[in-house]
From TrEMBL, chain B:
It is a peripheral membrane protein. Keywords: ATP-binding, Cell membrane, Membrane, Nucleotide-binding, Transport. The lineage of its organism: Bacteria, Bacillati, Bacillota, Bacilli, Bacillales. The keyword Membrane applies. This is Arginine ABC transporter ATP-binding protein. The keyword Transcription does not apply. Its main location: membrane. It comes from Thalassobacillus devorans. SUPFAM superfamilies: P-loop containing nucleoside triphosphate hydrolases. InterPro entries: AAA+_ATPase, ABC_ATPase_HisP-typ, ABC_transporter-like_ATP-bd, ABC_transporter-like_CS, MetN_ABC_transporter-like, P-loop_NTPase. GO terms for molecular function: ATP binding. Pfam families: ABC_tran.
Length: 235, 245
């Protein structure tokens, strides 16, 4: 019985300390999320999506040179670890005089990464749209670009929202890797606080909860977008 | 006037159109019949330049496409603008309402102001009997209604010639009449039409000429009454017998 009551007393003292640390660390972590994690995710995802559309169109262009460029890009990005890519962009390039600040370096890395993965999603989505949609567009004298922009992409968007949401949510979590190239995003903030408080379980759990909250909100957003885009399909 | 001269189309080694010659006077209706695989769809697709013929010449009014020479994208666009296509499977844009489907070409291709295009689209939908369905999405419409939207969408581009590829063959029998009725009215208004269909009643009532295709050739042509009552070619006779069974 003795050790147990000791543990309970110890826990009570600990609990107070935990609450203190939780309180004092919450806003720094939140700040890391609002100032770094979320902007990094949003900017990298936007640039990544643009890259992805261009890469997908290259792959579908029927022009050999463009197809090969797209394939090589996708192959390199998918075939190497994200962490290694970040190290090359930040430390590697830095060592030969191409010094990029941590945040822009992270943007470059995550954009390139998202671009490659999302391009395959977008390519598959475009290819899933029936050929008759292209033909109907051409039959009313639309150009390739008009057909793509007005008819194909809007339908492909609906198809690609679930897999793109996966990429988006993965990206939120992957930005924690930016901590290794000195971006003071949420995870790095938690590491810094652990260094002074020696409470890794508390701080990392707190960070995890914040990531989870962000991803949960995003999945609500996904539901809303899907609902909107599904308005024209039979349920 | 629409004129087709010595039109050839092959896919790989498969010759699908083997020298088609056909003239359609302005305001006339030509019905194309023939067994499956005889090249009827390919012929219409060539007229809409969804397929590029290997040889031959197409002309509508003063626009000419000569496929023995290099044809440019611009020439194709200019020619295509004169034909409107109605597909067997409608191919409506599912993410757009009926009226948006009809407005799309005028607004995007012809740069007509939205409000003006909307008014015109509404008139066209009223004309095909869908004035009360303009804000419906395609999935909310029956096959016959969707096909009528398809007709309105093609008409909105004000083509010289309307092309119909078996427009009723995907429809339930009770919905065929409403589509044929719209087509009949168009013909009466003087639209030039090339119609692939096996609706013999429609051909008899509306067609100025019927052509029978087989193996990429036009085997027989004539006035529907003559051709249906006394076909001169034995293949035509066999085919018509099959249809009436
Ligand atoms: N894109 C294509 N590639 C290869 N073969 C085709 C293609 N389109 C049509 N064909 C072939 O051409 C022939 C004629 O087809 P089609 O014009 O659709 O005939 P119909 O409409 O009279 O049934 C068929 O044998 C068909 O398989
Ligand atoms: Mg056909």
């Amino acid at each position: 019985m003795f050790p147990l009551s000791n543990l309970i007393i110890a826990s009570a003292i600990n609990m107070e300390r935990y609450l203190d640390i939780f309180q004092s660390s919450f806003f720094p972590l939140l700040e890391g999320a609002l100032a770094r994690t979320i902007p990094l995710t949003l900017i990298a995802f936007s640039i990544g999506l643009m890259l992805a559309v261009i890469t997908a169109l290259f792959r579908l262009s029927g022009i050999k040179a463009l197809e090969i460029i797209a394939r090589i890009y996708i192959s390199i990005i998918r075939g190497t670890p994200l962490l290694v890519q970040l190290y090359i962009i930040f430390f590697g390039l830095g060592s030969v005089g191409i010094e990029i600040d941590p945040f822009p370096a992270a943007i470059i890395g995550f954009s390139l990464n998202t671009g490659a993965y999302a391009s395959e999603i977008i390519r598959a989505a475009i290819q899933s749209i029936p050929k008759g949609q292209w033909e109907a567009s051409y039959s009313i004298s639309m150009s390739y670009g008009q057909a793509l922009r007005r008819i194909i992409i809007p339908q492909a968007t609906r198809v690609s929202i679930p897999p793109l949401s996966n990429s988006f949510i993965s990206l939120v979590k992957d930005t924690s890797l930016a901590s290794t190239i000195m971006v003071t995003e949420m995870f790095r903030k938690s590491q810094e606080i652990v260094a002074t408080t020696y409470e890794p379980l508390l701080l990392y759990t707190e960070a995890a909860l914040l990531y989870w909250t962000i991803c949960f909100l995003l999945s609500l957003g996904q539901d809303a977008i899907e609902k909107h885009l599904n308005r024209y399909v039979q349920t | 006037m629409l004129s087709i001269k010595n039109l050839h189309k092959q896919f790989g080694d498969l010759v699908v159109l083997d020298g088609i010659d056909l003239n359609v006077e302005t305001g006339k209706v030509v019905v194309v019949i023939g067994p499956s695989g005889s090249g009827k769809t390919t012929l219409l697709r060539c007229l809409n330049v969804l397929e590029t013929p290997n040889k031959g010449e197409l002309q509508i009014n003063n626009k000419v496409l000569d496929f023995s020479k290099k044809v440019t994208k611009k020439n194709i666009q200019a020619f295509r603008k004169q034909t409107g296509m109605v597909f067997q499977t409608y191919n409506l844009f599912p993410h757009k309402t009926a009226i948006e489907n009809v407005m799309e070409g005028p607004v995007i291709v012809q740069n007509i102001p939205k409000q003006e295009a909307r008014n015109k689209a509404r008139q066209l939908l009223e004309k095909v009997g869908l004035g009360d369905k303009i804000d419906y999405y395609p999935y909310q419409l029956s096959g016959g209604q969707q096909q009528r939207v398809g007709i309105a969408r093609a008409l909105a581009m004000e083509p010289e010639v309307m092309l119909f590829d078996e427009p009723t063959s995907a429809l339930d029998p009770e919905l065929i009449g409403e589509v044929l009725q719209v087509m009949k009215e168009l013909a009466e208004e003087g639209m030039t039409m090339v119609v692939v269909t096996h609706e013999m009643g429609f051909a008899r009532d509306v067609a100025d000429e019927v052509i029978f295709m087989e193996g990429g050739h036009i085997i027989e042509r004539g006035h529907p009454a003559d051709m249906f009552s006394r076909p001169s070619n034995s293949r035509t006779k066999e085919f018509l017998n099959l249809l009436s069974e």
